[in-house]
Amino acid sequence: MKKPIIYISRQIPAELLHPYKDRYQFRMWDKEAVPVPRDVLLKEVQDADGLICLLSEKVDESLLKVAPNLRVIANLAVGYDNINLEATKKEGVVVTNTPDVLTETTADLGFALLMASARRIIEANHYIKTNQWENWAPFLLAGSDIHHKTIGIVGMGRIGEAIARRATGFGMKILYHNRSRKVNAEEVLGAKYVSIDELLRQSDFVVSVVPLNEETEQLFNEEAFQKMKNSSIFINISRGGVVDESALIKALKANQISGAGLDVFAEEPIDREHPLMKLSNVVCLPHIGSASMETRRKMIELCLENADGVLQGTGPITPI
Questions:
Q1: Is residue 320 part of a domain?
Q2: Which residues form the D-isomer specific 2-hydroxyacid dehydrogenase catalytic domain (predicted)?
């Protein structure tokens, strides 16, 4: 009997496939850091029963049209704005993602980005590496305190709550805005639900953890940045599309806000010529929110479990 085929759009450790080698035929793009070309992806899915892919792979009607055997798409991410859910539902293809396993790791990165931006860590490191440190001065590379400041979390999902937990250790006042109230977060973490306008006006740190959709696209625009404190710092670990980058650049240059820490961008990847990379008050990271060895392995394992569950008829663990 022919084994079902699962195509994997990036190179992953072969040992993670071993538990499934007797049940499936695996095919894999042979590069880890380079996305599979569109034409190769379309060719590979033609006889595939399952697809494990990244955010860089666009799963749309044209892909589904050439993949009549496809039964499951396991997205190696929490977000899934790369997938046309309406089209997959129409074709009866199950779509899964990887929530929960990356929550704490992404929150670690978000808070690290906040701290690096506030205390000018990257600038300070560059200062020494470029041999500029000749003397000590009272305000040399002086940044902003984090402890006992106000953090405003936009999007109080799993990651938002994990960031709030970290903020409690710094004695921070926690504000949040979400589509719905999170009573447990209010009771356990002391978080306060406020309107988005009030959050922007009061917060010393504004952290975006919202999904990208029609409601949140360019949520952080010129008007939003104008409402923020001149001393505030904007952190984005959600999706680049929730920010009007032109408005953010304008706000940073005009000192409407103090700085920004960004792990995501409207168009990825960016290079060193990107306007945001030229600003000293911005810390830019290459979308590494969940990039710890432990978490990335767990994400891949969950994708494999999801694909296996659908193809074996027991059902997925984390369907969308």
A1: no
A2: 8-317
CA distance linking residue 25 with residue 231, whole number of Å = 55
pLDDT tens by residue, 154-213: 999 999 999 999 999 999 999 999 999 999 999 999 999 999 999 999 999 999 999 999
Domain count, the chain: 2
Report the phi/psi class of residue 94: left, alpha or beta, with left for phi > 0 and alpha for psi in -120 to 50.
beta
Q: Is 239 a catalytic residue?
A: yes
d(CA 257, CA 244): 14
**Residue 25 and residue 3 in contact, taking contact as beta carbons nearer than 8 Å:** yes
272 and 302 belong to one structural domain: no
Catalytic residue among 177, 287, 296, 305: 287
Catalytic member of 120, 166, 239, 296:
239
CB atoms within 10 A of CB 275: 14
- Whether 318 is in a domain gets the answer no
- Residue appearing with tokens 């027991």: 314
Contacts of 23 (CB under 8 A, 6+ apart): 3, 4, 308, 311, 312
Q: Following DSSP, what letter does each residue of 279-316 receive, concatenated? A: -TTEEE--S-TT--HHHHHHHHHHHHHHHHHHHHTS--
Distance (Å, whole) CA 160 – CA 235:
12
Is 126 among the catalytic positions?
no
Residue 317 located in a structural domain: no
- What is the domain range of residue 165? 103-284
